[in-house]
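Hi P.,

Sorry for the delay on this. The queue was packed all week, but I finally got your sequence through. Input first:
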Amino acid sequence: MGSGDGTCESLFVCIRCGECCKGYGGTYLSGTDIDTISSYLGISADWLMAHYTRESGGRRLLAQGDNGYCIFWDKVCTIHPVKPKMCRQWPFIRSILVDVRNWQAMASSCPGMDADAPVHKILECVKKALDL
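Then the structure:
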């Protein structure tokens, strides 16, 4: 992608390929995510948790299908208008602040990420996104 014009928007342009919806440990859900998704689907939060999530470390994660993708991936995100906060923040996530090499690792599988972005710009944009 190249390093673009230096803005945060130039670091990531989602092409909706679904690579971030596959594997990688799962998508954590907040209580708000659970309520919003269940309302969008017209089901109870309890039904959503029982049929579309799993527990890991005391927290709820979206379940994954046998193909390794999020249970809501079907060539597109079927809950895109109400996708979880973790998905909305991608790839501007907290683990990047711990080690910017995580950006380069994720960029190797996400065609929307600028793998050549300067370290200071990546950190600045991740911090800005997390402060919102």
